[in-house]
Amino acid sequence: MNAVTREMNAASDGDFGNADNAQRLKRLRALIAGGPRTLMMYMTVIAILYAGWSRRGDVYLSPEEGLGYALGITGGLMMLSLLLYPLRKHKKWARILGGVRNWFRMHMVLGVIGPVCILYHCNFQLGSMNGNVALFSMLLVASSGLIGRYFYGRVHYGLHGSKADLENLGSDAAALRGCMKYIFEESPSMQKRLDGLDAKTRNLPDGFVASFIHVIYISMLTRWARLATARDLRLAINAIHAKNRMDRQTLGSLDEVSRFYLKTYLEAIKRVAGFSFYERLFSLWHLLHMPLFMMLLVTGTIHVLAVHMY
Ligand code: HEM
Fold first, then answer.
1. I need a labelling partner for 99 at 20 to 30 A (CA). Which of 52, 67, 105, 146 fits?
2. Residue 109 Cα, ligand 1 centroid: separation in angstroms?
3. Residue 280 included in any domain
4. Domain enclosing residue 84, as ranges
């Protein structure tokens, strides 16, 4: 393995030129994590919902008895259990329940499966007034949860990661640029393109609408930069290969590591550009989510009492 690849690979193992940066690599990996698995999960849920909705006229399930009734109890209990996450997060004594990350993961899973059970419980149809109000409150809270999940992901390193801040994101981007110096030496045009993009992301506007437009604009620019730099990267790696005569494995590893740097770098600067905007949205979302949740608690309780009393 030649010096270039050794140094680049060392960085990908968590050594960005100084030994205490393993933490940084963990953060960076989390920045680009997710993707296919999450997509698969959502596609499965959509397919299950579609299957139930398209058979809503058939009377296989009744909310009052048998499996339909059991699904109502199960969904309700799932939504009560997902409250263990805020409990674990906010109350010190709840530490005995285990790690916050696992409870957060459970919260999201139960927040999706619970409402699916309730939709099957009511057979995707409307019924009594109290049931309808409880149903819409549930749909509102679950949808709000999905939106919150998106905002959360924008201001954290991954869904189970630590809270991000501008300083860390900025220094991560700078570290990644440092790691790409070998690529830049072979491709000044790529460096120039990324410099231009970097300057634009730092020009953060004031005001909500201007920030929103800026976030969309930078998101489009980074997407474009990814496409536009793909060729530059390939040419730069070929040039390094020509100079250093690498074997297949080393070349493959250099290719993989450089792609990782470029992808993570573009993600990091996109996050820098949108950080303040999403941070504000996330705290506004928190303010809205709690009253919606309280509404679900009240309407769900009234529904359960009403169906068992009358
Ligand atoms: C009916 C279902 C749901 C209920 C009753 C519910 C309830 C709650 C409650 C009470 C909180 C705590 C708010 C706070 O600490 O200020 C919360 C936070 C949160 N929920 Fe849900 N939720 C539901 C579904 C979902 C779903 C489906 C998702 C995403 C897939 C989700 C994602 C989140 C996120 C990202 C947070 C903020 C976490 C944080 O700031 O630490 N929720 N939810």
1. 146
2. 10
3. no
4. 36-161+287-309
